Amino acid sequence: MNLALTDEELAFRDEMRTFFTTQIPAEIRERYARGEVVGKEGFIESQRILNANGLATPHWPVEWGGRDWTPVQKHIWLDELQLASVPEPLAFNTGMVGP
User: Fold this and answer.
1) pLDDT at position 40
2) What's the CA gap between 34 and 64, in Å, rounded?
3) In CATH, what number is assigned to the domain containing residue 68?
4) How many domains does the chain have?
């Protein structure tokens, strides 16, 4: 089994890392990382940024705003989202209400 990322996957990882650390406000990420209350406004702001860039629901079908990503890309997206301390899209909304 080869667990190394391909050059394309490495580039994708770098793209996700850069996006999450430059587009989501540092204040939101820092508060979230410290386990502090981000509040409704923080979640809404980060969700709007993710939505505007097609990064809120990549696991959905493409016709409903999802991405045609590989399982590895989906894993990288979630990994980098968490590493950057970006509040994850609310599971109730993206996994239950939306579908």
Assistant:
1) 93
2) 33
3) 1.10.540.10
4) 1
CA angle 23, 28, 32 (to 5 degrees): 125
Domain of 48?
Answer: 7-97
pLDDT in tens, 36-81: 999 999 999 999 999 999 998 888 888 888 888 999 999 999 999 9
Tell me how crowded residue 11 is: count the other CB atoms within 10 A of its CB: 11
Amino acid at residue number 6: T
Q: Work out whether the CA dihedral 67, 2, 14, 11 comes out positive or negative.
A: negative
DSSP for residue 64: G
Q: What is the pLDDT of residue 65?
A: 80
How far is it, in rounded angstroms, from Cα 9 to Cα 14? 9
Share the mean pLDDT of the chain: 90
Query: Which two structure tokens, joined as six digits, stand for 29?
Result: 């990420």
